[in-house]
Amino acid sequence: MIQRLRISVASVAALALLLAIGPASPAGATSPAAKAGFDFFPTQFPLPTGFLPEGVAIGVLPFAFFGSRADGDIYRVNLVTGKGTVFSQGPGAGKPSVGMKLDGRGRLFVAGGNGGDARVVNAVTGQILATFSFVTPPAATFVNDVVLTPNAAWFTDSLNPFLYKVPLGTFGALPDPSAVVKVPLSGAYQHQPGFNANGIARTPDGTALIIVHSPLGLLFRVDAATGVTTQVDLGGATVVSGDGLLLSGRTLFVVRNAANKVVVIRLNLAGTAGEVVDELTDPRFDVPTTVAAFGNRLYLPNARFGVPDPGNATYDAVAIPKP
Questions:
Q1: What is the domain range of residue 86?
Q2: What is the pLDDT of residues 294-304, one digit of tens each?
Q3: pLDDT of residue 2
Q4: What pTM value is reported for the model?
Q5: Which residues on adjacent β-strands are paired with residue 265?
Q6: Side by side, which strands form the sheet with 218-222?
Q7: Residue 152 lies in a domain
Q8: 176: exposed, middle or buried (C-beta count within 10 Å: 0-12, 13-18, 19+)?
């Protein structure tokens, strides 16, 4: 009874959010999506000037959440209308919102970049529910991405050879901050000076994790219990500048930010091997960092790394057909 009640309350809250932001209102026949030939919803989403987007998360409802590298603000967009707003104020400069995932309880798990931490945010109200510290600045750290499993949230650190585990209790209860577990990466993964592990996903059978090493362009399968890694056999293919990962069934989407591409990999169930089956690109890509899906769409924020005067630059996110 308790679990059913919680699901009901979450559903009511989600419906209230949908109604508050706006009803479905398809664009006209000349909209970019109509020209693309796959539906009538927007395919381009303006973000605030100077926002410096990085992460994206989407759940079962048509709302995307984008995180800011500038100050950790989180911007929520209605995918049907294209309208959005900053619904959760960030902690400020030096405390970005990078990789994000949305769980079934209406909570956003947010990687905190060089803040060395993670936050859990109520996806309806924007309230910060919990903060977990992994590394205390000024120590070098960049908590980059997150994936959710039934009993934990797992975070990568691009500057340190660890995964950080936030264990979840009964009905997804958030733990005391002292319960965070630091799992050293060992085996085939070799940590190098500078940036290393970036995006993270689960294997198709759910028994292990997959991380991407951006400079090397390699995928590694991680035994979550031990941190021991093995290289995923891609038949010699690499994904240099690999950033965000998205698993859909046995298909792994790997965003190659600097290459303005999304590599499509067909994995075996255990995630030990895969084959590159496609590469996706779009003229609107401008250094996309990560990807989330809704329906027949993939949604990607354009980070525009290296743009002059980033604090005054314009930013957006784009949608492309999901193969």
A1: 2-23+38-306+315-321
A2: 999 999 999 99
A3: 35
A4: 0.89
A5: 252, 276
A6: 186-187, 228-231, 218-222, 209-213, 197-202
A7: yes
A8: exposed
